[in-house]
Structure formats: structure tokens, C-alpha cells
Design a protein that fits this description.
By secondary structure, the chain is α+β, with helices and mostly antiparallel strands. The protein is built from 3 helices and 4 strands, in the order αααββββ. The protein has helices spanning 2-14, 23-41, 46-50, and strands at 54-57, 60-66, 72-78, 83-88. A 4-stranded antiparallel β-sheet has the order 1-2-3-4, with helices on one face. It is globular.
Length: 89
């Protein structure tokens, strides 16, 4: 069952969408989706982005952190973990 969930999650992320079944899964999806987008638009490494904390924000989640070069990166998702926006400053 666990491998089936992991396969479904991997396939969902590969196609850009993921609909988790439980609250714990949502944070995994948020982290995966935001990490992918953060790496695409900033100089953050995968390890840096994976270390950014996730907080509940309104009707979704927000992941914010700092890169080793001093950039501040924020990613916001909807309640299902789909990325709404990523900001680098």
C-alpha cells in the first residue's frame, strides 16, 4: 500500500499536480512542489529548499527560507499543495 501511494505521489508530481489524501501527505506534497519551483527560479539547492519550514497560511501553505547567497525565497500553495506563486528577493 505504501509503495502504491509513493508511486501515485511520484506520478502526480511529475505531471505537476498532486492531491493528497491526508494532512501529513499535504506537507509532503507542498515540500515536493515548492522545492521543485524554488530550484527553478532561485539559486537554492535542493538541500537548502528541503530545509525551509512549512506553515499553514490562510487556505494553503507557505514555505520560506534563505539561500546560502542571501536570497529570501517564498513559495505559497493552495490547500492541496499546488503552487500559486514563488517569490525571490
Amino acid at each position: 500500500m505504501k509503495s502504491l501511494r509513493m508511486l501515485a505521489l511520484a506520478a502526480s508530481i511529475a505531471f505537476g499536480t498532486a492531491l493528497p489524501a491526508a494532512a501529513g501527505d499535504v506537507e509532503d506534497v507542498v515540500r515536493a512542489n515548492c522545492t521543485k519551483q524554488i530550484i527553478n527560479v532561485s539559486d537554492a539547492t535542493r538541500n537548502e529548499a528541503k530545509g525551509f519550514p512549512i506553515v499553514k497560511s490562510g487556505n494553503g501553505y507557505k514555505m520560506t527560507g534563505h539561500t546560502s547567497s542571501g536570497q529570501t525565497v517564498s513559495c505559497e500553495t493552495d490547500e492541496n499543495g499546488r503552487v500559486k506563486w514563488v517569490k525571490v528577493s
